Amino acid sequence: xxxxxxxxxxxxxxxxxxxxxxxxxxxxxxxxxxxxxxxxxxxxxxxxxxxxxxxxxxxxxxxxxxxxxxxxxxxxxxxxxxxxxxxxxxxxxxxxxxxxxxxxxxxxxxxxxxxxxxxxxxxxxxxxxxxxxxxxxxxxxxxxxxxxxxxxxxxxxxxxxxxxxxxxxxxxxxxxxxxxxxxxxxxxxxxxxxxxxxxxx
Length: 201
Description:
By secondary structure, the protein is mostly helical. It has 9 helices and no strands. α1 crosses α4 and α4 runs antiparallel to α5. The chain is elongated.
């Protein structure tokens, strides 16, 4: 009888390690966490974890990359696809989807942010990683704003600082979803819509 080797789902295994690591980081603190604890709680061997990640920093970078990469592909379609609507409506849809995504992944988001806060106290700053991974989204907003101004649909505004403000608003909403039990998407979207509508010519 011919023996077939067991097929390993590498992406599934990476995501298992990732989810477990975020839970361990949030519970133990970033400094006190290690790959042995993560391996044990994920139910796999430490050498197996090393096949995918060399250290815990790599795990965190992968988490941010995984989340932002999936989102950016979706938001490019909203910005430039056949969805219809002007620049304000498209930016509103993107921000609404960011909130929906945060709400449906509340536990993972809270772990991600708890790790950031814990690591910062221990002298590890992930702000640059987050900034690099959200740069594409910032460029997307800048292009939408520039297009709207050129078409006369948006008033003359500082493109760079406006895009930065929109990114900061998205980050604030994610923080509130993660940590405020009484978060209301409806109330937040009302504020976001009023803010974006103020850019109209």
